[in-house]
Amino acid sequence: MGDQLTSRRSFLAASAVVGASAFGAIPASASEHGEEGMSGEMPPTEFVTEGEFEDDVDILNYARLLEFLEADFYRQALENMSERDLVCSEPIRSFGDPIQDRVYGDLQTILEHEETHAEVLGATIEDLGGEPIDEPEFEFGAAVEEPMEFLATAALLEDTGVSAYAGAAPSIENAELVPPALSIHSVEARHASFLRVLSGEIGFPAAFDEPLSRAEVEEAASQFIVQ
């Protein structure tokens, strides 16, 4: 359990470094960025992605890793926690009907989305003549055992995925890959907003999302990868 807590703290620490708009499950950071988002200022333009990826297959495998991580996170959580555990936890129970009645099913739908994303990305990589990465083993500790920890971490992971897609998209070389990538990106943003609300935060804290570099995302995600 000590290692799991250390990993969790490391991930939260990484979130503070790379920016609250991407890791918005921390109340203070979300509040701070919410104020910035109301300023009407455009996000920084100096973000550089050149040289982060070898080719489009590398980008798709990068996205596939994130989808594997999210899918296994929801899978473990829904196996470890019953529907009653989740719907009777704070802040979900404060919503009452009909949110309580459907939240468990909605989380199962999100799991299905993540699994589908990983599968489709793998098929696309093969179509391009590449080799899809295998799914690593992940460990999430209390985040898949305690409802409040689960909600906060879910929002964190979804925010990370949104900013990861935003950071990688400019490096895509094949224009035909852009529309499907954007379609995944928009669904991940819907997931993020939903999980933010469930965890007691505003679903859209800022007018702009900040992209994340590959190094930032992989550093954060590595906290959960066992092998």
Which architecture would the CATH scheme give at its second level?
Up-down Bundle
Q: Which consecutive residue ranges, at least 5 long each, have pLDDT under 50?
A: 1-39
CATH secondary-structure class:
Mainly Alpha
* Overall outline: globular
Order of helices and strands: HHHHHHHH
Overall number of strands: 0
Q: How many structural units, i.e. domains?
A: 1
Assigned CATH superfamily: Ferritin, core subunit, four-helix bundle
Q: Return the structural class.
A: mainly alpha
What's the end-to-end separation, in Å? 18 Å
Proportion in helices: 55-70%
Describe the structure.
The protein is mainly alpha-helical and 227 residues long. The chain has a single domain, classed as Ferritin (Up-down Bundle). 61% of the residues lie in helices and 0% in strands. The chain has 8 helices and no strands. Helix 1 (2-18) runs antiparallel to helix 8 (214-221), helix 3 runs antiparallel to helix 5 and helix 3 (56-80) runs antiparallel to helix 6.
